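Minutes, methods subgroup
Present: GH (chair), OT, SY

1. OT presented the first of two proteins processed in the latest run. Sequence and C-alpha cells recorded below as shown on screen.
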Amino acid sequence: MWPFTNAAPSAPPAVTSDLVIPLSAEDDTKINRDLLLNLMLRFDVVLDPTKLTESLDKLLARPDWRKLGARLRQNSDVEFRKTGISSPDHFDEDRPAYTYTQLRFDVRIHEHPVASRIPSGFSGEVPANIANPNDFNELMRDQSTPTHINDYLTQDRPQLGLHVTSFADATLVCISWPHTLWDAMGRREFLLAWTSLLAGREDQVLPLNGFDVTPLSEFCNDPKEEYKLLPKRLSIAQLIIFGLRLWFESFWYKEEETRVVCLPASYIQRTKAEAVASLKQAASAAGEPTDRIFLSDGDIISAWGTKLLAEHLPFGRNQTICLLNAFGWRELLAPDVLPRSKAYIANASSGIFTYLRGGEVVSQPLGHSAGRVRQSIKDLGTRAQLEASVKLTRDSMRATGHPPLYGDATMQLVVVSNWSKAKFFEMDFSPAIVPGAPFAKGVEPVGKASYIQVCGISGGYSLRNAFQVSGKDGQGNYWVATTLRKHVWDSINKAWDKKETHQRVKN
C-alpha cells in the first residue's frame, strides 16, 4: 500500500545487535525523504579504486564514523512517517558500510561516446549552456542505485553508495545518498575526513558530533526575538492556493529540462563590480554612506538566476518573487552547539527569504536584486532570527507535518542552493593517482576535480526553478544546474545565441 497510506513499508528483519538511532527533526522531513542525490566528480587523472575504497573502509570502521553505514528504517505507527537509522555494530561482506560498484573502459575519456561530452573546465567570457547532466546517468550511477526512498526502507542497504568509472586517462568518482543523510556542509566534512585518511593524515579526522544524540534538539526552545517574517506567514487558504498553482504548473507545462550553465570567472568579477558600482551610485544619490556596500559572489549568482527567470517567464509586473537561498547553520551555532572541533554529519540548514517584484527584477540593474539578497542575509541571518524561525518550523512540523511558508499565495518561488562554501573543487585525491598513467589534460596530473555535477531524483515534487551551484572550480568559474520549462530553455538559448552573434559582429 505504500506510499498511498500511512502504513510503513515492509522492512527487513531487525538485527538485535544494531543500534537504533532516531533521525533529527532537520533530517526527517518530507522534502529530504523525497529527494535522492547523485554527485559526480570528474578527475582528469587515473585514480586507484583500491586506494579509494581502502581509505573509505578505514573511515567507516571508526567507532563514531560507522554511523554513516547505518540503514534507514521506518517506524511502524508514528505520526508523519517518522524515520530512524539502524547502525550495525560491525561491517562485513554481507552487511557492508556502503555499496560499491565500478565500471572500467579501456579508452581515453574523449574517445567514449558519452563521457567525451562531460565538461572539463571552460574558457568563455559569458554564461554558457554546457550540458544536460542527466545525459551522464549511465556513468554516474549503477542500475541498482536507489531511485526512491522505499529502496532504502525495504532493503538492508547502506545509505551511502560509491560508484567509480575508470578510463585510460580519467576517473569519475560518484556518490549517492538520500537527503536525510546530510546537507552540503555535512558532505564536506565527510570528504575532508576521507581525503585525510587517503593521505595518511589520520590525526586530521575529526570525531563526530552527535553519534546517538541530536545536538540541535534544544537550541531554539527559547527564542529571544520574534521572526521578522511572521506577518508574511501563509494561512491555510493561502497555502492551498499556492499548492494548486504548483500543481497547475507541473500539469500544464509537463516538459522540463535540466541544464548545466558555466558562469565564467571574468563574468562574475565584471558583473559584481558593476553591481557594487550601481549600489554605490544609488546610495550616494540618496545621501547614504557607500563605504560598507558589499556583495558576495553568491549574491550575484542569486540575482543572476532570478533575473534570468524574470526575463523568460511570464511574471506579472507586481507579482512577488520569493527568492529562497539555502542557509547553513554551522557558523551561527559554533562554538556552543556545534563546536568546530567535531564534524556534524547531518542536515543543519534552512532558508533565507528575499522578496522582489517581477517588474523591478527586469527593469532594475542586477545590483538591485543582489543588494536585496545581501540585506535579507543581514536581517535574517542572525542567531536570534535562526532560533525564532526554526522554532516556528518545528512547531508547524509537529502540528501539520509541513513547514511554514512566508510570502503570498500567488508568489513565484525561486530556490538557490549554493555549495561554494563546501569547496568541493578543492578536495584533493592526489594520493590515489596511479603513477605513470596518462592524464586527460594539463601538463601534470592533478588530483582535484575539474568538473562537478549533481542529479536529484525527486519522488514527490518538482525541482523546477531551483538553481544548484556545485561550486567554483580551479579557474574561478561557477557551475550552476537548473531545471526549467523546456520552452523557457529554448527562449534562453535563442537569446544567448543572438547575443553571441551580435558580439562576434561587433568585434
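2. SY then presented the second protein from the same run.
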Amino acid sequence: MQRPTTRLRSLLKRKGLLYAPVTYDPLGGKLVERLGFQCVYVGGFATGGSLATTEPLLTMDEQVRVAAAVANAVKLPLLADGGAGFGEPLHTMRTVREFIHAGVAGIHIEDQFYPKRAHYHKYVAHAIPIKDFVSKIGMACQQRDRSDKDFLIIARSDTCRFFGLGEAVKRVNRAADAGADLGMLFPRNHKEAIEAPKKSKIPLVYVVSRGNRDGRPLYSLRQLEEMGYKVAIDAILTIGLNFHFLRNALLEIKKTGDYTGMTQAEFVRARQDLEDTIGLEEYYAIEEKTVEKKTWGKR
C-alpha cells in the first residue's frame, strides 16, 4: 500500500484541482472519505474551536494528536495546519518530523510570529522577516528530505493582507527556492486572486475562508481550477455548520421544550448513516463470530 504522502503526490500530478474539506475529528474524516473526496484537512481554527480555545493557543502536541487520530481513521491523505512551525527553525524541524510520524501527508507553515497572538483573528499584522521565514521553510524541507521526501511542505504567507500581493508572492517564491512544494497566500480581492497563480513559482493553495470578515473573495471549485489554483482547502465549513445547526437546535429545545427540525424517521436514517460511516456492521460481524456466537449462530 502506498504511503499517504506518496498518494498525495500522485493526486497533485493529476490535472485539475484537489479539494480538501476541513475536519477536526475522526468522524468528520470518515464522512469525507465515505462521500468520495480524495483528501482531508485538519485546520488550526477548527482544532482550536473544537477544544473551546483559539488556534494561537494550540500546542504542537494538540494539533498533532488531532491530525493523528484523523489519519488513523481514514485511508485518505491528510493535510494539516502546522502553524508557525511551533517555534524557530529547529522547532519547525521537529514539527515536520512529528506530523510525518502521525501519518500526515503534508503541512503548511506560515510567516507569523511565534508564540502566535489572538489578535491574528482581528487581522493585525504579525509577520516575521522574510529571511527568517525562508530559513524556517528551508529547515522544514531538510527534515522532509530526511524523513519522507514525499511529505508536502506548503509555504504560507499572511503578508498579502497587510503589505500587498507583491510581498506575499515574493515570500512564497523565496520559500520555493528553499524547497517548498506549494504556496499559500490570501488575495484581498478578485484581481489579486487571478494574478497570484501567474506570479508564483510553485502551485498555490486557495483557502476558502467562509465567514471571513475582511472581504476576501469566495469562489466555487470550478472557478478556482480555471484561475490556476492546484488545491482548495475549505477551512471553516464543517465546524461552522456544526456549530450553527447545533446551536439552533439547542436554542429551540430551550425555548420550546422540543426539537422539530427533523422527524423521528429522519433521525433514524441519520443515525443509521452515522453507524454505517463508523463501520458498526463490521463490529457486529466480529462479535457474532466470537463472543456473540451462541446468540446469533453463523452469519
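Chair's summary of item 2: The chain has a mean pLDDT of 96.
Next meeting: continue with the remaining queue.
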